[in-house]
Every structure is written in structure tokens, then in C-alpha cells.
Amino acid sequence: MKEVVVKCPATVANLVCGFDILGMALKEPYDIMKLKLINEPKVIITNKDDYNLPTEAEKNVAGVVLLSIMEKLGDNIGFEVEIEKHIKPGSGLGSSAASAAGAAVAANYLLENRFTKDELVQFAMNGEKLASGVKHADNITPCITGGVTLIRSIHPLDIVPLNSPSLFVTVVHPQIEVKTSDARQILRKEVLLKDAIKQWGNIAGLVAGFEKGDTDLIGRSLEDVIIEPVRSILIPGFDEIKTRSKEAGALGGGISGSGPSIFMLSTDEATAKSVELIMQEVFQRLGIDYKTYVTSIAQEGVSEISTK
Ligand code: ADP
């Protein structure tokens, strides 16, 4: 195999109460990446979209990931990469993770699957470090494996894939900028014990809910008493969307990643579509441009579309 084209899904990290430890893959939106092996130790990147992301390997998350793979291999090989991005950078929908995970998985296909899933996550985390300054795996892991994942620890890496019921996901991406660094900076460094108890009860409930396929338990556990109250002030319309979506029958939801996207889970498509109408109505009224998706949890992560 000399060339591979892969589909790289968007991901929702944090999953409300699971800050930095839970994430899930979405069927839509997704990026497309084409990778080719070349006999020179360099990475050549071409963008097939209008986002003007850097093409220097050291400044593009896909490039950084591929350079780390080349360093490990030590052979005289390199990669030609085409990125067709549909997940807007900075949306909170795992745009950088899609490129990082896509590069790692596609390179592995070309290298006859010599690396394990854990090794691919390690390579891909180098890309997340470039994008956000810290290594984190809550977008990368579900992007690679699909479904819902728990990252129990990154030092050492301990990934726990969770069962996920077929739920619908409504996403709204208001076209405002929330810098990941700002969203991290405003967080309090200390938490009250009573809040911590509530939070770990919710995380345990959410994990149990996924494992048992108990959607009521999932809904009850989608509560974040630590991060969301602080971060949601950066997202106009957040409280109204959450309250009205739940009234319309959604299980619950919250901020996707560090925002500004908001996601809501529903058990059926009709509810997911009424949630979309609520999101559209709120952002129209606020005069903020937006994009919505009604999609579902992707059981498959980065996947091959074609090979040559
Ligand atoms: P998201 O929250 O959507 O994942 P991030 O804030 O994690 O977005 O990452 C976006 C940042 O990473 C932007 O500053 C962008 O310029 C940079 N970046 C570099 N290469 C890529 C890439 N291939 N895909 C997406 N973002 C990239």
C-alpha cells in the first residue's frame, strides 16, 4: 500500500462531568486526509480547504505527529499529506485531534500496522501538545477507536473503551471565538469537597449508565458542578439552550471540549431535531452566526476510505 485516504471524525471531549477524561466520536462532521509514503525524510503538507492552516510540518499537528513517527522509525521515509478539513479549528469539536489521530492511523496503515493503539495515541498526543500546549487524549482516543472512551490516566496511558448506546447528538457551533487557553485560565485551581463528591458521583453514574445502556442514568449524571458554571459564561445562550433542550426531552449535555460548541444527547431523532430548532432560534435571536449538526455517536474511529 502506497497511499491511503481516511475519514477522521469530530469528537466531543469532557462529556460534561468528565473533564479531561471522557470523550466520544461523532458521525459528523469529519475531515478527510490522504497520506502517501515517500522515500525522503520529510513531511509535505497541502491544505484542501480554506482554513489556511500552517503547511510547515512543525506547525501543523498532522506534521508534528508524522515527524514523531519518523523519529521513532529512523528510516529514510517521509509522508505527503493532503488535509481536507470540515471540522473548523477552534470549534471545540476536536479539529486538531482529527488531524493528529488521522495522521497517526493513516501512517500506521502505510506501515503495515506496526504500532499498537496505545502507541498511536502517544504519537497523536504530540499534535495536541502543539495545538493546546498540553498533552491530552480525551479527543484523540475516541477519534482513533470510535465510541465513548475513558482515559483513566495518561501517565501511564490507561484507556478504557466504554459501551455506548445508540444516542443522537445535536451540536451547535456558534461562530464566536473561545480560546482554549482562556477557557483553561479562568478555571478555579481548587474545588470544594462537597462539589468533588457530587462530580465523582456523576462521573461514576455516567460511566455506569453507558456500560448498562441506562439512558435515564446517563441523563441524571450529565451534570458538571465544577467546570461548566465557570466556562459557560463565555458562551452566550448556553443556559437557555440547556434548559429548553431538556424540557424538549433531551437527556442533557453541555459544552463540547472547551467550547464554544454545545452538544445535547437524545434517545430519538425527533427530539434531537427539536433541540436543533431551539439552538437555531436562540442564536438567531442573539444575532450570532452558527452551524448545527444532528448526528449520532460514531462507533468507528478514523477509518480507511480507499487505498492504492
Ligand atoms: P478544537 O477545539 O476544535 O480541537 P483546538 O483549539 O484544539 O481546536 O486546535 C486548533 C488550533 O490548532 C488552532 O490554533 C490551529 O491553528 C492549530 N492547528 C495546527 N494544525 C492543525 C490541524 N491540522 N488541524 C486543526 N488545527 C490545527
From TrEMBL:
It is an enzyme of class 2 (transferase). It comes from the Bacteria. The keyword Amino-acid biosynthesis applies. Its EC number is 2.7.1.39. Keywords: Amino-acid biosynthesis, ATP-binding, Cytoplasm, Kinase, Nucleotide-binding, Threonine biosynthesis, Transferase. GO terms for cellular component: cytoplasm. Its main location: cytoplasm. Residues 207-283 form the GHMP kinase C-terminal domain. Residues 65-147 form the GHMP kinase N-terminal domain. It holds the Pfam family GHMP_kinases_C. Catalyzes the ATP-dependent phosphorylation of L-homoserine to L-homoserine phosphate. This is Homoserine kinase. The lineage of its organism: Bacteria, Pseudomonadati, Bacteroidota, Chitinophagia, Chitinophagales.
